[in-house]
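Re: export button greyed out
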Amino acid sequence: MNESLIILSIVVVTALAFDFTNGFHDTGNAMATSIATGALSPKVAVTLSAVLNLVGAFLSTAVAATIAKGLVDANLVTLEIVFAGLVGGIAWNLMTWLLGIPSSSSHALIGGVIGAMLAAAGSSGVEWKGVVSNVVLPAMLSPLIAGLVATLGTYSVYRTTRGLDERRTDRGFRIGQIGSASLVSLAHGTNDAQKTMGIIFLALISYGSVSADETLPPTWVIVSCASAIALGTYLGGWRIIRTLGKGLVEIKSPQGMAAESSSAAIILLASHFGFSLSTTHVATGSILGSGLGKPGAEVRWNVALRMLTAWVVTLPAAALVGAAAYGVTAGIGGLAGVLVVFAALIAGSFAIWLRSRANVVSHDNVNDEWDDRASSRRPAAAGAES
Amino acid sequence: MDGWLNVGALVKVLVFGIVAGAGLPALFALGVRTQAVGSGTIDGQHLAGDRRPLLTAVAYVCFALVAVAIVTGVLFVARDFIGHHTGWYILGAEAK
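Workaround output, generated via the alternate export path:
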């Protein structure tokens, strides 16, 4: 086994690890509101979402779009840059998960790759115009559009059922909510699993084991990416589910249905028309919109503001980690450099996981009353006054 | 694409987004309403007559339309996959 094959294997494992964090980071995008309203029990919700992510990952057999395309100079991409970028993405995903903030997994990955490229080749290696028009502008516009659609949807749903006894409409809306949440899960699988497939595909091409002319990634790539994202989804990012389902808006089934319909429609339409966007930004915009569209509903703007801050910080922060990871990898050089950074990534991830044990959010307490005064991200300790 | 942003595509996302993302929930809500009213008035815990079969029928039409729209949407997303594995190229899919 030669050195570059070992590096390739580590890159593939790291990419699958990123896919896994992508899964649990984004479970909430689809299922947070269904869990919050009780339309689905937490366990059933994550299982359903995992299965649909798995199916969705298989459905999209278009050429796995490389995430780096149009953002960095493809000729300069090396295995080390891809590796460092993935490390940046994973690190930022884990940090934001610890804080319960639904930030964009795609932005974390893109930031990591850009940072690694900056460290490797300087500013000329990055296609800045592509970054603005493919990443920054869609990131600013997609939550606004999703929010607008969800506001209109929520308003018309409440307008249509005005004056009816809630007991007679609730069952119908719960079914609608489960259906629309399932669509978001499916859309997520088709979109996000593809990104990791693209990364692994890119690594295989640069290693030379796959021709760049291939239209489909090898089957084992599709199967492993689909499984990694489904497994992550099943694990459930309870911290983020809690923030999205309970923190932002106190949500009812009709709102949840409107929010998810908006999310599913925008994600599927945007990818059809060639916009790459973050499912997280769309889902958050939709949930906010469902709070705006319901007469008398309350939106917690301080929670929204904290999310917004995290969104802005995601690209530069992941870029910083990506650049540092590349610096160490290239500084030590060769297989040793990759191994050192890989070990650091494992140690760091374990430290974050240990830290998370201090205040566990699980399927048991994910729906506890939201306490805005104290440690707002955390559920009140069991038995404490809320 | 020369511009920073494909405005034409953006407008399409917005328009179709409103039709599908807000229109379908509204249609579903109409179904919920007509079904509730069509099944008669509630007297305490029990249904107390005044069933209106026409409204019930309208409700099922609403639900059916929503279901058709969703199935079409899913088939649209999966059209390349279906084409690749079965040879049935539907909804504008093309053989590669």
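Residues 374-386 of chain A have pLDDT under 50 and may be disordered. The button fix ships in the next patch.
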